[in-house]
Amino acid sequence: QSRCLTPPDIRARKGAAPIVCLTAYTTPVARLADAHCDVVLVGDSVGMVLHGLPSTLGVTLDMMILHAKAVRRGLKRALMVVDLPFGSYEESPAQAFASAARVMAETDCAAVKLEGGVDMAETMAFLVKRGIPVMAHVGLTPQSVNAFGGYTVQGRGGDAERVLADAAAAAEAGAFAVVLEKITAPLARRITETIPVPTIGIGASAACDGQILVVDDMLGLFADFRPRFVRRYAELARDAECAMAAYAEDVRARRFPAPEHSFDDIPQTPAGGAV
Ligand code: KIV
Ligand code: NA
User: Where does 3-methyl-2-oxobutanoate bind (predicted)?
Assistant: First the structure.
């Protein structure tokens, strides 16, 4: 972990070059992201993106740890942050510490992320004082989807004060960065100008100190739905669909495998191709 970026490195980027973040859940994708990102988040979005769950509420600590171990093997430079899943930290600071300590010990991550601001400030301070760097997540917090009644934009009108208070409380509690999810652009700018730690936006405008996207969303791999705040930089689901259709056609027509994929009785020399 020593050669990786650290939470203080990220904290120090406030007001400097934008902080580039993506999620990852597997070794090969972590390896790709590591070359381009400052922070790689093992998000609890893994439940919806890779496991087909209807929300993040069903994600367990064991799932997070399994994916975080895989991501760890793919990183050389980026800071790895792991989400604490629903139910693993809200009950008490002690519960949060036990969960976070287990995640850190088993996955070698350098920080955890949890959802909440004012209500979780005591918990965040408890972790930070005990050596666990915390990234906070405010605005639209998907683990509260039932309380919100959906995934609607947060911080409009008088609600702005609530989100600002959450971000400020997280920074005050010692969070080294705060994710702002799906809030209005003016509010994202105001929070970014107000709090002393970097804001990492997702659906929160270019005013933030950094940006994060769910990697499968920006690759066009998770195509079930498409939040407005996602820009698709590739269409991997479409490409995979074409590839599978072509493969199925080839197999049915006995065009695959071809002679070069098949083996003779007499081994060929290395110069003559694979044996
Ligand atoms: O779980 C996740 O992917 C996240 C990011 C979108 C911030 O929390
Ligand atoms: Na998350």
Answer: 44-45, 83, 113
Query: Is position 55 annotated in a ligand binding site?
Result: no
d(CA 181, CA 176): 17
What is the ipTM for the molecules in this complex?
Answer: 0.99
Token couple for 145: 């989807």
- Find the mean pLDDT for residues 64-76: 98
Residue ranges around ligand 1 (CB below 6 Å):
23, 41, 43-45, 83, 137, 179, 202, 212, 214
Domains and CATH numbers, the chain: 7-231 (3.20.20.60), 235-262 (no CATH)
Q: How far away, in angstroms, is 50 Cα from ligand 2 center?
A: 13
Q: Is 181 a catalytic residue?
A: yes
What is the Å distance from ligand 2's center to 58 Cα? 12
Pocket test for ligand 1, best of 82, 143, 179, 200 (most atoms within 8 A of CB): 179
What's the 63 CA to ligand 2 centre distance in angstroms? 13
Q: Please write down the long-range contacts of 97-104, taking CB distance under 8 Å and 24 or more positions apart.
A: 97/126, 97/127, 97/130, 97/132, 99/61, 100/127, 100/132, 101/132, 102/61, 102/65, 103/61, 103/64, 103/65, 103/68, 104/132
What are the angstrom distances between the C-alpha of 6 and each of 42, 133, 221? 16, 9, 30
- On whether 83 is known to bind a ligand per the annotation, the reply is yes
How many CB atoms within 10 Å of residue 166?
Answer: 27
Average pLDDT rounded to a whole number, residues 124-131: 98
Mean pLDDT of the chain: 96
User: Could you read off the pLDDT of 224-260 as tens digits, one per residue?
Assistant: 788 999 999 999 999 999 999 999 999 999 999 999 9
Distance CA 207, CA 186 (A): 8
